[in-house]
Fold this protein.
Amino acid sequence: MSQATAPLVACPQCGKRHPYHSSNPARPFCSERCKLIDLGKWADEEYRVAVQDDPFQDELSGLSGKH
């Protein structure tokens, strides 16, 4: 696939549209800079993976001290 026919995608960091092509080692980001900004946000815990609260967690923690 040539770069001329590569689909245009929005950079997840800055929103700039760029060709999604194997010649870009930072893909899906438009540049290494945007890639590193995103990595820094993960390292600073600005992004978090959502977890569902366990409705039984309180019951289980109460059982751990009783034998």
